[in-house]
Amino acid sequence: MLDLKRLRVLAEVSRQGSFSAAAESLYLSQSAVSQQVATLEREVGMPLVERTRGGPKLNDAGCALIAHAEAALARLEQAERELKAIAGLERGELRIASFPSASATLLTDALAEFSQRHPGVRLAVTEAEPEQSLPLLRAAEVDLAIVFDYPMLPSRDGEPDVDRTLLLTESMYVALPRSHPLAGAEVVKLAELAEESWMCGVCPSSCGDVVKEALRGAGFDPRIAFESDEYEVQQAYVAAGLGVALLPDLALPTLRSDLVVRPTRPTAPKRRVWAATRPEGARSVAAGEMVEVLGATSASFSPRGGAAA
Fold this sequence. Notes:
Helix content is about 40%, strand content about 20%.
């Protein structure tokens, strides 16, 4: 493999017509330029330059080599320009995985802000629960994952190859039909809902596990009648009088008008929302920028749970 630096020196000698002019152009000494050309000639096993009184002239071998070298150097310069553009967020792509309730709230605003700042960066979003998005992140199939966990549950992701930035800690509330006998209570005792049917995320999952653990902590084993990872679906079932559910803050901007949400006793679990990326060094510039934008978006998010009546 020929050294591109030496090829660049040879090309500059050809353009400038002298070793001294090439040295000045490349900010090298004349002897260094001569040595680079001589080393390149040894590498190819033949002379490349005729050293005449009128200055160095490429021979046939030198001309053939330079024809290919200039094409290679042009491609290399193009690659360098593209890398600078990506590093400067002028181009490139940012691939994101996010769970639905974050996609509809935090991520929507963050995408709009990011696009305004960096219109040249393509954005691609896929919806996935943390159980799917974190493996995608580790496999470099996405650049950033918005994930959640519950402090009350054992961590399922203690791997050191993911960096996390906390975006939000959500409260959770019980969702009831407006016609429910407890809909007017300021705080609902979970034990009073022991005979109700319950909704939760599709099991096995942390969304399903946290509902079961919270209700067992309130003194009863819940009857899980319906499973769905979509909070809109859970809301529809609750509104139809089919049961009750625990909803987090991010699900409440789209709360149905025929539902109410109430704080609970004991207090329902908290849910933490994170921006997950690969560690520094493996993380793209665009992913790091999006983490900052998501942090600002999350700081301005206003939970409505306690005020929904």
